[in-house]
From TrEMBL, chain A:
Classification via Gene3D superfamilies: Nitrogenase molybdenum iron protein domain
InterPro entries membership: ABC_Transporter_SBP, ABC_transptr_periplasmic_BD
Domain Fe/B12 periplasmic-binding: 19-257
Signal peptide range in chain numbering: 1-15
Keyword Protein biosynthesis attributed: no
Protein's name in the database: Iron complex transport system substrate-binding protein
UniProtKB/TrEMBL annotation, chain B:
Membrane-spanning segments: 55-73, 85-105, 111-132, 139-164, 184-203, 233-258, 278-296, 303-320
GO biological process terms, semicolon-separated: siderophore-iron import into cell
Compartments, record wording: Cell membrane
Membrane protein topology class: Multi-pass membrane protein
InterPro entries: ABC_BtuC-like, ABC_transptr_permease_BtuC
GO-annotated molecular function: transmembrane transporter activity
Family membership noted in the UniProt record: Belongs to the binding-protein-dependent transport system permease family. FecCD subfamily.
Name recorded for this polypeptide: Iron ABC transporter permease
Keywords attached to this entry: Cell membrane, Membrane, Transmembrane, Transmembrane helix, Transport
Predominant subcellular localization, coarse grouping: membrane
Domain of life: Bacteria
GO cellular component: plasma membrane
Amino acid sequence: MAAAVMIAAALPAGAAPQRVVSMNLCSDQLAMMLAAPGQLISVSGLAQDPRLSPMADRAAAYVPNSGRAEEIFLMRPDLVIAGTYTPPATVAMLRGLGIRVEAPPPAESLAQIRAEIIRMGDLLGRQDAARALLARFDADLAAVRRPAPRGRAALYYANGYTSGPDTLAGAILDAAGYANVASDHGIAATAPLPMELLVMSQPDQLITGAKWPGRSQAEAILDHPALAAALPGMARVTDRTWICGIPFVIDAIRSLE
Amino acid sequence: MRWLSVALPPLVAALTLASLLTGPAGLGMSESLHALAWGGDGPLPIVMRDIRLPRAILGAVVGAGLGLAGAALQGYLRNPLAEPGLIGISGMAALGAVIAIQTGLSLATPLALPLTALAGAAAGVGLLAALAGPRGGSVTLILAGVAISALAGAGTALVLNLSPNPYAANEIVFWLMGSLADRSLLHVWLALPPMVLGAALILPTRRALDALTLGEAAAQSLGVSAVALRWRLIAGIALTVGPATAVAGAIGFVGLVVPHVLRPWVGARPSALLPASALGGAVLLLAADIAVRLIVPERDLKLGVLTAIVGAPLFLRLIWKTRSGGRV
């Protein structure tokens, strides 16, 4: 704590940005958790969608942006937080206009979530708030984490995709004490898993992706009779707390209890 | 002719069996067939009965339907370039299916899916028959087909792009190219009955189509009613192509390649070509569906990719022959 105060004091005054725009669902939420009052002026429109964002209520208080360079430039930000998958042309345009743009990568593991909390604190000049958030995250994680093996679980999304251990969803499964069926088939990241391999694996728990409004063939696979026959009992469904590598993953881990 | 009727049915049976035995799980032959026939505990019967069986049945049925519809259409229009996928009938069926899915009709009643696809196919084939009936030339047929295909494709893309579902837009590929991956027995029950009915309407037209090869006037003097034949074929083709497309997407070129390959063997008589093309279509589609699982098993390669690779060069060759004035 003392070291933190010293580092904070050593920073030049005015180093913290005063007008921050976030244009990425995950950085939106971390920024809302850490920013000083008035420091964050806009978040992406996605952050206001209750299907995607656990902080939709809080995000409603901010001006939404849709990630276009023009509207963001007109907000006169001194820091723009984008993401790895923000269109490169937009990032280049904003940088060309003399705006500082940071693009932190998405956190795909619990360790990366910790690192991203610290990074966001540094970007916003809010190291103390970041440290407090990190301490809360570590305490909550210790409370929900289950090292004891609880069985084998399979993640199954639209188009027959599954997530392996190197993904955020895989990290959530692992923290909840489940072995990941994707590992049995050599899948580390997110890749398609043929349905017959899934059925042959006989997982104890199936966790499917949430369905979107409207209909699609891609999601129809989740209603295939073979899944219902092979895995009696209710499949669990991922929700908005599974999307971003932020402290809300605690809720996702808890949902697997 | 004799040779075909002896060789094709066992070939269909062998490929159906091969389709049942092809899959990423690498199951043993005897145990998987045992599980298919007798059931048992564990996941094996589920894989065989709920995943592989629908795929094999649909491969045979959809292929047979497309082969039969292609041969009938070519016989009626007296044009070897007529093919349900190329001239927009499958595209119109896909448009109907997409509308049923996206409006929620198919959720209210599953039967809405084949029915709207059927209506789309009927609209497509009816429009074609009106624009390029037996007297229309190849150019009229192809131009009408291009226009109907483009319209149907654009309509399908529009409906899918307007969907609030983020995955829907990616499904344009499925509806344009077709796939049998992860179909269920429900799809079999939705498609099979109307397709059987369609085949029952098409097959008795064999004599009339034979007579039509002599020319319209000759056919009429032989007692063929042009109006009755037209409506019967429109209904039959819509009943086979519509439900097939509703469950498998638009698979092109099957109805072109198969009659073309088989025609010399049957002496170019439609009466013999229709049943042979149905069997040949089943052979082609089953083989293509086995191939997509063997070539890139980890990707869902679309069936239409393979059938187009085989069929498009053939189509170009046919156009070339038509162009140089030779009869095809």
